[in-house]
Design brief:
Maltoporin, Chain A, 6-stranded mixed β-sheet, 4% helix
Length: 816
Amino acid sequence: MNIFLRFLSLSAVMLFFTTRSVTAQSFSVRGRVAGPDARPVEGAVVSLLAAKDSALVKAALTEATGTFALTALPAGTFRVSVSYLGYQTLLSDPLTLDAQTPAVSLPDLVMKTADRTLNEVRVVAQKPFVEQKIDRVVVNPEALISNAGTHALDVLEKSPGVQVDANGTISLKGRAGVMIFVDDKPTYLPASELANYLRSLPSGSIETIEIMTNPPARYDAAGNAGVINIRLKKTRTRGLNGGFNLSYGQGRYRRSNNSLNLNYRRNNLNFFANGGLSVTNTYQDLTIWREYFTPAGALNSSFTQNSYIRRKLGSAGLKAGVDWYISKKSTLGLVVNGFRNPSESHITNTAQVLDAQNTVTSRVEALSLADRRLTNRSLNLNYAHKFDSTGRELSANVDFIRYRNAQDQSLANDVREEGGGSANTLLESSLPATIAIRTVKADYVHPLSGGHKLEAGLKRSDIRTDNVAEFFDVVGQERSPNYEFSNHFIYNERIQAGYLNYSYQGKRLSVQAGLRFENTAIRGNQLGNQAVADSSFRRRYDNLFPTLYVSHPLDSAGKHQLTFSYGRRIDRPNYQDMNPFIYPLDRFTLYGGNPFLRPTFSDHIELSHAFNNTITTTLQYNRVRDVIFETIEQGGTVFYSRPGNIGRQTGFGLSVNGTLKPAPWWTVQFYTEVMYNRYRANLYQQKLDNAGTYWQVAPTSQFRLSSTWSAELGGSYQTRLYVGQFTISPIGNVRLGVAKKVWKDKGTLKLAVSDVFYTNQVEGFIQSLSNSSARWFSYLDSRVATISLSYRFSRGQTLRLRQTGGSESEQSRVRS
C-alpha cells in the first residue's frame, strides 16, 4: 500500500510540473451539422479530405448537439465531407490551415434531404495503408489488395516494422516480445498457438491494426517490444447492416478464410456479431545440419535430419454482444466470445548420423502425429457513463476468460545401425491444459480547459493455469507410464495496477505523459511424480513504468513535425515456460521449461520527424535487460531447447515510412529500416555476443486503372538478421494483386498472388553452442493464389464504437 501511495504522489508531482511547462499550437476544424429543419444531426460522419486527391486525413462523428471537432491536423488545403443516411452528401468549399489560420470554425453545415430523382453524388476518400499518430502507427488492411482472403498473420507480415518468422513468431523492429491484442483484449496465446489463432482470423474481419512501440500508460506494461492491437470490424449503423468476405486460396494445398459481420440497432439496443470460418492446409520442409567437435576442435560426428511437416488448421469463431443505451450518457454492454481451433500435424522425420570420416553409422525414421483442440470462451461486461459534453467519462470492464487445450500425440522412432541391429520405440502422450483468467478494470477521463486532459485507472487480474502431461511408453499392446516426461504443473499469478496519464493539445505543442504502477505476485507448483520430487517457487515484484510523448511543429505551416517518445516495458514469462519438466520434440531435440526465468525490462526512446504528414523518419534506441528468448544447449547428440534470459540487448537504428503519389493514378507506400542489434550473455558456459546491422525495405505500388479497376505490386527484402542465439539469412518476396468493384461499388472481387518467385524461404545458423554447430533451411507453402469476394451493406445512423475489455495483456502469455 505504501508503494502505491508513493506511486500516486510521484505521479501527481510529475503531472503538476508537466502541466505548468506546456504552452503551444496545432491546426483544427470545428463546426456544427444540422438538418433542413435546423435541428442538430447526431452521428453524422464528418471527414476531412485532402483537396488535391480526396485522400482521407481524419474523421469524426457529430455529438448530440450536432457539433464536431477535428484536431491535431497538418497544414494544407482541405474539404469537409458530411454524410448521413437519408441526406445528400455535403461537401464544403476548400479551406486552408496555415500559420495565419491555425483554427477554422465553419458556419453551420446544413444537409439536404436526399432526392431519389437525382443522380447519386459520391465523394471517394482513399484510405491510406498507414497512418502516423503521436503514440502509434495505424494500419488499414483493406487498403492493400494482397490482404484480401488472407489471415491476420499475413496482414501483420506486411505491416511496417513487423517481422514474422517461419514458426509464426512476431517481432517488432528486430525485437522479440510483442504483445498481441484483439479489440484491446490480450490473445493469451504466444508462440505456436498464437500463430495458429492469427492464421484462423480472416483479414476480412479486421478493421485496423495499431502498432505501438511505446504504448500509453493506460495499456498494461507487458511487452518488451511493444503492443500490436488488432481491431475487428463492427458495423455502426441503425437497422440491419453488415458485410461478408469469402475467399479461396491455392498453394501446394488449399486454404479458405471467410468472415461475416452483422449489426442490428433498434431503439436503445444495439446487437452486433462477428464470425469467422477458416481452413488452412500447409506444409514445411525443414532440413537441419549439426556437427559435433572434440574439445580440441576436430570433427567428431555429424547429423542431418529432414522433417516434412504437414499441418491442417481449422477454426470457427464468433464474437457477439449487445449495447444497451440506458440514457444519452450511460451505456451497458455484454460481449461473449469463443472459438474452436482444431489442428492436426503429421511430421515425417528421416535422419542419419555420420562419424568423423562422414560415414553413416545409423539411420533414424520417425513419425510424429499430433491432434490438438484449442477452445476458448469469454464473457465481458462493460459500462460507460459520460458526465457532460466536455468528454468527462467513467468506464468499467469485467472479464471472465477460459481456455482449454486438449492435445494427443505420438512419437514413433525406428533406429537402424549400419553394423546391424535395430530398435523401435513408441511414445504416446496426452497433454490437457486449462487457463482461467479474471480481470476487473476501471478508467476515468477528465478533460480540462485549454486542451489539457487527465486520465486515471485501476486494474486487477487473476490467472490460474493447470497443465497435465501424461506420457506412456508403448511396447506391443502394453502401455506403461513414462515418469521421465510426465508431470503436473499449476501456476497462479495476480497483477494489480494503477496509472495516471496527462495529455495536452496546444497550438504548437502536444504532450502526453503517464506513469503506471504494477504489483506482481506469482506462485508455481510442480507436482512431480513417482520418480521426480515436488518443487515450487514464489515471486513478488513492484515496478513503475513511465511514458512520455512530446510533439512540436518546426515551422509555422506545420509541414515539419518533431515527436519524441520514451517508454519502459516489462515482458513476463509465458505461463507454461516456467514448468521445469521436459518433453521430446523428436529423438534429437528436447524441449523444457525454466522455473528460474526472470522478467525482461526494456527502455525505448524514439525521435521522429514527419514531413507534410506523408513521410515519417524515426531514430530509435532501446536497451533491454534479461531478454526472454529461446536458447539452445548441446548435450551429446541431443539439443535442449528451453526459454532463457539473455543478459543484455542493445539496439539503435533509423526507419522511414511514407506515402508518395508520382501520378494521380499511382500511389507508393514504402517502409525501410536500418537497425543494429547486439545480444550479449553467458549461456551454458558459452559466451554469446551476436551483433550486426540489418536492412529491410518494403515498397508497395497501387495503381488506379479506372473507376472500378485497381492493381497492386509489392514486396519486401531483409538482409541478414541477428536475434538471440540465431542468425537469419537474407530473405525477400514479391506479391501482386488486382481488384474489381462490383454490384454498384458495394462489392469487391480481388485476385492476389503471394511470393510470386517462391523466395520467402528461411535459413539460418545457431551460435554459441558447446563443441558443435547447427544450421537449417526451410521450404514453406508461401506462394498462394487467392480469390476473394467481399460485400458490404449499410443504412441508418452511424454509431460510436466503445472500447470493451479489460484484459489487455494476460492472454498473450499462454503457451500450449
